[in-house]
Amino acid sequence: MRFAVDVTLASDQQHLEIRQGGAALTMAPQPTTQPEAYAKSTTTVLATFDDATPAATTAALPMTYLTIDESGRVAFDLSEIKERHPLATSMTLYVIRMSQPTLTGTLAL
Q: What is the widest separation between alpha-carbon atoms in the chain?
């Protein structure tokens, strides 16, 4: 199951803002070590870009993994992304949570 969210670039141009129903979402910072392989709080944040070769499924697309910083925000360096994906005009963000539905949103680049 997936829920749609709104994704925008923060004013600092270094983080993404994720909103669901108007409320800002933050996530637990990613620990450097986990006590178990997959905990209920495990979250993976990744992105796909529209410059990739079309694929039959989302799982077959090249993915870029993003980091959750110590304040619970998704770190995002727009200039680095544009350098790595110069032909991309949009990015789809996936917030995959072990015990909750996946969140998805699109950001125009």
A: 40
Reading the block at residue 34, the tokens are: 């986990």
- Under 8 Å between Cβ of 28 and 68: yes
pLDDT digits (tens, 9 = 90+) for 10-63: 998 899 999 999 999 877 776 545 556 555 667 889 999 998 778 888 888 888
| Cα–Cα dist 39/99, whole Å | 9
Residue with tokens 């727009």: 78
Rounded Cα distance, 48 and 61, in Å: 7
Q: How far apart are CA 4 and CA 107, in angstroms?
A: 12
